[in-house]
Amino acid sequence: MEALTVARRLPGLRRAWPRADGSMTAELVDPAGGVDQRLRAVRISAQGVVEQLPYATDPALPGLSPRLPGRLVVHRAGRRAVVLQDDRALKLLRPGRATDLPPGAAQAFGAIGLRTAPVLESGRDHLATALLPGRTLHELGDDGAAGWARLAELWPGLAGAPTTLPAHGPRQEAEVLERWLALALRHGALDRPGTLTGEVHRACARLVDGRPDPPVAAHRDLHDKQLLWDGSRVSLLDLDTAACAEPALDLGNLMAHVDLMGLTGALSQDGWRTVLDLLDGVATAMAVRTERLRVYTHASRLRLVCVHAFRPGSRSWLAAWLEQSLSAQGGRFLEQGRSGR
């Protein structure tokens, strides 16, 4: 039995990560509650054999231990774990994989007024950053309108600002999308795989063949759960993937996630329209060409189809998201496609 089929039958499945060899890792919580409501990491072989690791234990992550104070919120077997403590987020990694954030990342975003988490401690197998105040813009929904407005005021400051971050060009972004498609196909995760495959290839060609806009500092995983609002300041989380890229990369990814918020009801239709209007204004202020914004937005939507195919919480809306992503072609979702929430 294939790994994804087995994963979808596991009680308490929270999320899963596919591997190119057909195996997977996953996180579970006991749906019955009690002490085993704690997060547990699972490995699933390509043949569907399940191995559940003991709580907060992983031979590949020597810094992880059930004796650590705090709450385990992420455990990707063999790769990483995150423990939230009183004053910090502690990330545990394989020895030699724990490094400081990309040089210049905090400075680039801090220079425009965004708050980022300072590094409190780092070692060969761990990285600790300070906890930041506020709630995510995803959690706030329509109540986060002021946070979105403040982000829209600040983000154009990246245009023209010098940065020392490593380059991430259109070809690298196309490779990310192609890799997610390959994983989804390998695991049989997709409805209409042929149609999606053709659309992904066309989107990648448009990414690579089009004339790029001048690059800026980019987060590379910018979405509503990476942004905190405390009523006065916007904070930006997880700078691990920061790079120098076209401004349409972050804006397109953010627009795709805002569309997803609208589809799932995390934003009302009025809220969805308001946020997209703000982001359109950011694109104009940064001189982002419409063509590049459309292709990056479309590529992000297609990538999210593949990513969420492995997440159990998407089952109620993934088919609608696929249909709308195929029809939107980089523009705003059709109003009639959003009316049935």
Please describe what this structure looks like.
This is Phosphotransferase enzyme family. It comes from Actinomyces howellii. With 341 residues, the protein is an alpha+beta fold. It has a domain at 133-341: Aminoglycoside phosphotransferase (APH), C-terminal lobe (Aminoglycoside 3'-phosphotransferase, Chain: A, domain 2). The chain contains 10 helices and 15 strands. It has helices at 3-9, 105-110, 137-140, 145-154, 170-186, 193-209, 247-264, 269-285, 290-308, 318-328; strands at residues 13-18, 24-28, 40-44, 50-52, 71-76, 80-84, 88-93, 115-116, 119-122, 126-130, 135-136, 216-218, 227-229, 234-236, 243-245. It has a 5-stranded antiparallel beta sheet with strand order 5-6-7-10-9, with no helix packed on it. Helix 4 runs parallel beside helix 8 (269-285). Residues 334-341 have low confidence and may be disordered.
Helices and strands, with pairings:
Layout: H1 3-9, E1 13-18, E2 24-28, E3 40-44, E4 50-52, E5 71-76, E6 80-84, E7 88-93, H2 105-110, E8 115-116, E9 119-122, E10 126-130, E11 135-136, H3 137-140, H4 145-154, H5 170-186, H6 193-209, E12 216-218, E13 227-229, E14 234-236, E15 243-245, H7 247-264, H8 269-285, H9 290-308, H10 318-328
Parallel strand pairs: 8-14
Antiparallel strand pairs: 1-2, 2-3, 3-4, 5-6, 6-7, 7-10, 9-10, 11-13, 12-15, 13-14
